[in-house]
Give the backbone structure.
Amino acid sequence: MDERRLREVALTPDEYRVIVEQLKRAPNEVELGMVGVLWSEHCSYKSSKALLRRLPASGPGVVQGPGENAGAVEIGEGWSVVFKIESHNHPSAIEPYQGAATGVGGIIRDVIAMGARPIALLDSLRFGPLPASARHFEGIVAGIGGYGNCIGIPTVGGEVYFEDCYANNPLVNAMCVGLVRTEQLMRARAEGTGNSILLVGADTGRDGIHGASFASLELDENSAERRPAVQVGNPFLEKCLLEACMDLAHTDAVVAIQDLGAAGLTSAVAECAGRVEGAGARIDVARVPRRERGMTAYDLMLSESQERMLVVVRRGREREVETIFQAWDLTSAVIGEVTDDGQLTVVDGRDHVARIPVKLLTDGAPMRRLMGFPPEPPYGLEVDALPPLADPGATLLRMLASPNLASRRGIFRRYDHMVGDSTVLAPGGDAAMLRVKGTRLGIAVTTDCNARYCHLDPHLGAQLAVAEAARNIIATGARPLAVTDCLNFANPDRPEVYWELEEAIAGLAYACRALEVPVVSGNVSLYNDSNGESAIYPTPVVGMVGVIDDYGKRLGAALRAEGDFVLLIGSSHNDLGGSEYLKVEHGHVAGRPPALDLTRERAVNRLILSAAQSGYLHSAHDCADGGMLIALAECCLLGGIGVRCPAVRPEPPLRLDAALFGESPSRYIVSVPSRAMPEMQSLARRHNVELSLLGLAGGDILEFEGQLKVTLAELRAAWEALVT
Amino acid sequence: MKFGVVVFPGTWSDRDCGWVIDQVLGQDLVYLWHKDTDLKGCDCVILPGGFAYGDYLRTGAIARFAPVMEQVGEFADRGGLVWGICNGFQVLCEAGLLPGALIRNASLEFRCEWTHLLVERTDLPFTSSCAERDVLRVPIAHGEGSYFADPATLSRLEQRGQVVLRYSDANGRVIPSANPNGSLHNIAGIVNARGNVLGMMPHPERCSEAELGGTDGLKLFRSVAESGLKVLVS
């Protein structure tokens, strides 16, 4: 076999030998292309599958774990929440606007395929520093808005970090959350021999051929030539597709819905059939509606044209379904049927095109056994050698203005975050919250990952990501339910990268078990390198969903009333390793990330939830990046209320800089009306959690007596540096 | 009072408007499909927000040709209440039911944020529940909401008092810093000369319940609902 041809379909000579062995013949061109895309890292998870099995996937309330288009968890009153996060890193690096837009479009279709109505979008983004990375930043933010705003699903959250390591490899992880009546949850299983397979939505063009393979390679100087592998999004068409699919819920003619994403028709049909033991499918590509002439069977099976879905319909009821799509002026075509021979057979009219066992496509990729080896333990940090904090007020202003801490308002006001009339906690705080209309239920959603921690210690960093996501949910008064994860790593063929992947997954698994949040869906994106270098930080993004029984009891981060007591919950240590303070003030990314005691974490979380439930709290905010003082400043800025505090006198060995800017986990800032203080104090004692009074809310100044005194106007000017 | 909410392909505020009309106000609601050729006996037609037909070519440019729009035009000519919100305002301008046009925001960016609106007329069926010179807090969400008209049209609008809503600060001062999109004269909403067709860029259906951050939008919906009552009484 020609090696160049093999490289084009991203197969190794060894993998080619396996294909020949299994088929007992050489594959033809189309078959080679089909196997190539499905065996790509992006589709087959051949480097990560064994590790992913370590993640806890089940738990109370889980109605759908990994393996479907998205995961699903029950939230009560007959409703389930459906969600998944997915990367679109490689396309966004090459073509930022369309790469990001189609990433959003793709994740929405995953949720639609479960029969759920999408109710929220979140985006976890990583860029190189501005202004050098402005092309990526502007294009990606505009692409996310362009798609989400047009389709009418609110973009309510996410995160943005700027680090040198993402300069050539920006990360775009899009998460979609949907709602469905539990009994109407769909699964993409090609059940019922003889049932019809319909292709609906957009016509098929030549766009995106080999996209999945492209996403499984490092970027290099030739990557720009891969631009044709990036698809173009049409959110208007997807809006119509969405509404038509919602209308399908009213008929029982539909057996399954499957998104066409990476690897297009080949993957959609194979996955759908692969989920049913012994099932196969026969596809006639001559019936595929197309948007250009001269397309070959190869093009049609591998095209990644957007805004298409596969629908399996009970035999004889095709008209019913076609009528629904016609009402939305959408094309639908019967392109094949479900069989019981376990083969994916492709014909083009009367011509035979391909015939491959479904299992060979979906489960046949030889798992890669990679070696992990820890790199040099990075960068020790002598905390004692750091100079003492000279001017806390000046440091606070510099930190607030730093790109990783500054207000994200300039970004999220470019996203429609209100459409749907359900956003009861808007972006800008901890988690966002959507109400479930017709009930009192609220769904809290967030994404988190401090990749700097993961770089310094991937096991601990991944745990901290899970813990922070959970705190963001809990700060709103909601209980964490489940996780979706997006694992962004560099080239796993390098032993230190594979080690990072192993460690991060182990850390995720450990923290998810401890905090009782199963991982119900996820995605892996490897090879985020350029020209064999500039490896990104290991970035295991955690998307988390929680629920509150009565959204009337939700909490925001903003201070609400003058005279409230402002408290720090949890204890502080000399946790300056990997901190924003260390980076901004001392120019280091060094040390060990903050130690995390998950037993303490759970105790603090129980206290906050219990206090929220009892109505003792006026606000709650997670202490995370930038530490206590940054969190306190955010509470002031969001509420437009100052705080007056006595001087901070940390007890040795705690340093002043660590007390103010250290990033010890398991801490919250809460505000409590004076009448509830006695109850709050005794509740904290009962949970054995440290509670310290910081000061009193009021006025328009943030002050620690004799240490710092800054007006809200000064704070805001620094914080909104990125808002133009 | 029976409200009809028009659904074009690409519309997305239809269900939000419907929710307020039906669940918050308890009024009669019917959805009107873009291919419908009758208005099903409704008293007020709402053209809601969204990207009708993808807003390809130009916002509202294709929607004006939808079959339902012919009925909407005749209904407006007969004095029926027509209320365009966001994309609906853009459609009304394209259809010639309101003067002027909505162009790209001055920032060249989409904007989703809260604004304040000074209510300049309370003698209309859309604003009768508002106090004189009331200031409403209502969010916007648009990329092309900058109101534009030629000088003659603009001065005619002003002379005849057709400007109903203007972007202002929280105290009702109409100042440049309160203008979120570069609209001429801070215009957020206008009526036709007869006063039965209102177009506005902000979204009152997004602020009709306290849990969504405010209830000022309800004043407009309530005005319309009560205007129906007045007709019945008189």
